[in-house]
Write a structure and sequence with these properties.
By secondary structure, the protein is α/β, with parallel strands linked by helices. It has 6 helices and 6 strands. Bound molecules: guanosine-3'-monophosphate-5'-diphosphate and magnesium ion (MG).
């Protein structure tokens, strides 16, 4: 599609925005994707490969890829990066042990050329679980303030109830509008 055409379509809000949802296995990625699709909780099983869905919200059209997070699958993440406008990192706020793994994965992604212009939204998921880490704590552990070359935002959420999810998406939308 030509540049002018895509700008025109952009005015009507029909430009597709590619979003990829990454994170370790069991973080809640697939639950989040289907909350956006259907506003309901689906029964998930570990994702082998990926799920992709189109989501239309407030005149924006997102194509969201939910990529399997098991260790053996993480090396395939890079094949999904091209043309990504937003990277959503889902963190299981109850999983203190693997937060450092999450951090390593995050920083290796941010160094990828294909993601150099991508926004970063971090969902601090499973806030309903007692004793889970707060968004502030996760932000500090992930050292998000050291990220200077990407716009980023962290949002506390609970994928089961949907709480916080649209607040996160709202931030993405505002950022994309300002581009
Ligand atoms: P993944 O796609 O990142 O691997 P899933 O993760 O979406 O498959 O979710 C993994 C498990 O976490 C699921 O539980 C799911 O219901 C649960 N989960 C997701 N989000 C939340 C949340 O916000 N709070 C709580 N308490 N649980 C959540 P099961 O038991 O089906 O494995
Ligand atoms: Mg999954």
């Amino acid at each position: 599609m030509g540049y002018l055409m895509s700008r025109l379509l952009g005015l009507f809000g029909t430009t597709e925005r590619k979003v990829i949802i990454v994170g370790l296995d069991n973080a809640g990625k697939t639950t989040i994707l289907y909350q956006f699709v259907m506003n309901e909780v689906v029964h998930t099983s570990p994702t082998i490969g990926s799920n992709v869905e189109e989501i239309k919200w407030k005149n924006m059209h997102f194509v969201m890829w939910d990529i399997g997070g098991q260790e053996s699958l993480r090396s395939t993440w890079a094949t999904y990066y091209a043309n990504t406008e937003c990277l959503i990192l889902v963190v299981d706020s109850t999983d203190r042990e693997r937060l450092s793994v999450c951090k390593d994965e995050l920083f290796s992604m941010l160094h990828q050329e294909d993601l150099s212009k991508a926004l970063l939204l971090v969902f601090a998921n499973k806030q309903d679980v007692k004793g889970s880490m707060s968004a502030a704590e996760i932000s500090q552990q992930l050292n998000l303030t050291s990220i200077k070359d990407h716009s980023w935002h962290i949002q506390a959420c609970c994928a089961l109830s949907g709480e916080g999810l649209y607040q996160g998406l709202e931030w993405v939308m505002q950022q994309l509008k300002n581009r």
